[in-house]
Amino acid sequence: MTPCNRSSAVDAAIALITGPSGPESRFATAERQAEFDAIRMMLLAEATPGFDPVVTDAVARAVAAGCLGEQHLWRDLELANRQELRILLETCFEPFAHDNIMDMRWKKFIYRRLCRWGGFNTCKAPSCSACSSYSECFADEG
């Protein structure tokens, strides 16, 4: 999906997660500033070419803040479902999103990438052993 023909659903998702009640207002980013900044920078490094950089940065900030929540990322962003998150990530961070070839859950995928990206070693990956959705990590959500 190119920035020129993105859907109204993507625009609505962007407005939701970057608005005044978005994840940056709900999660304490200052307490985990290094983690927040690293996720944001990692996403920006793989922004969709030609996409509005102001919007891309706002979405990267929202996704980074959402990663600090305790639920699946689409829930922490208050999106309708995981597919809506996939479309949003494919729109704003196409190279990044297309690397998720195993359809791993997004927060887990982000943290795995973060731990490999730039030598960031202090990331707080979601705790798989305590997750009620452990068996769903690679499940089809058809």
- Please provide the count of β strands: 0
How would you spell out the order of helices and strands? HHHHHHHH
| Helical coverage, percent range | 40-55%
Query: Major beta sheet, specifics?
Result: none
Bulk shape: globular
Radius of gyration: 14 Å
Structural class label: mainly alpha
Total helical elements: 8
Distance between termini? 21 Å
| Overall mean confidence score, pLDDT | 84
List segments where confidence is low: pLDDT < 50 over at least 5 consecutive residues.
none
Query: Beta-sheet strand percentage?
Result: under 5%
Describe the structure.
By secondary structure, this protein is mainly alpha-helical. Helix 1 (8-18) crosses helix 6 and helix 3 crosses helix 4. The mean pLDDT is 84. It has helices at residues 8-18, 23-26, 33-44, 53-66, 73-76, 82-92, 94-98, 106-116.
Write the layout of secondary structure elements.
Elements: H1 8-18, H2 23-26, H3 33-44, H4 53-66, H5 73-76, H6 82-92, H7 94-98, H8 106-116
Give structural attributes:
142 residues; mainly alpha
In short:
The chain is mainly alpha-helical and 142 residues long. The protein is built from eight helices and no strands. The mean pLDDT is 84.
